[in-house]
């Protein structure tokens, strides 16, 4: 996306750089990326069909951000949804956690993954919560998903 560059001296000092002791959060990643591009909060909000107040709340971690909004922000900032969403930090101890991480890393909702795999959303939910194991056919599809994510992580 093309953003009009804002002169840094025009920004209050608190917005020039991220506070170094601020935790690495989804909001912090969005804000720092926006500032690196020289975009104002109003410009990014407009690109993402958000209000500036709503985007500000996301950047300050006052409110969470859903996957559809995160995808719009990701597209506007030119950063992977996996980076902005901090999905690399998700646990991978169980098969369900690995499935969820792979899904989110690709920026897919449960509905979208279910549609892609030709299963119902409840199946995805049950797999991710480790309530049920996928059938043999679905295990092969899920392994392909996990390998795609692993490839993305390593490249």
From TrEMBL:
Gene3D superfamilies: lambda repressor-like DNA-binding domains
Gene Ontology CC terms, in alphabetical order: cytosol
InterPro entries to which the protein is assigned, alphabetical: Cro/C1-type_HTH (IPR001387), Lambda_DNA-bd_dom_sf (IPR010982), TransReg_Diox_bact_type (IPR050807)
Keywords: DNA-binding
Recorded superkingdom: Bacteria
SMART domains per UniProt: HTH_XRE
SUPFAM superfamilies, sorted: lambda repressor-like DNA-binding domains
Keyword Lipoprotein listed: no
Coiled coil: none
Gene Ontology MF term list: DNA binding; DNA-binding transcription factor activity
UniProt-listed CDD domains: HTH_XRE
Pfam families registered for this protein in UniProt: HTH_3 (PF01381)
All residue ranges annotated as the HTH cro/C1-type domain in the record: 30-84, 99-153
Protein name: Transcriptional regulator
């Amino acid at each position: 996306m093309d953003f009009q560059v804002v002169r840094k001296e025009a920004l209050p000092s608190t917005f020039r750089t991220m506070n170094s002791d601020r935790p690495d959060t989804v909001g912090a990643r969005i804000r720092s990326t926006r500032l690196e591009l020289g975009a104002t909060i109003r410009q990014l909000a407009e690109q993402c069909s958000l209000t500036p107040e709503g985007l500000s709340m996301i950047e300050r971690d006052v409110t969470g951000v859903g996957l559809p909004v995160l995808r719009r922000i990701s597209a506007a900032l030119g950063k992977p949804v996996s980076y902005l969403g901090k999905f690399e930090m998700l646990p991978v101890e169980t098969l369900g956690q690995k499935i969820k991480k792979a899904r989110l890393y690709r920026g897919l909702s449960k509905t979208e993954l279910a549609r892609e795999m030709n299963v119902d959303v409840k199946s995805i939910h049950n797999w991710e919560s480790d309530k049920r194991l996928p059938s043999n056919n679905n295990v092969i599809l899920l392994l392909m998903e996990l390998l795609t994510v692993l490839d993305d992580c390593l490249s």
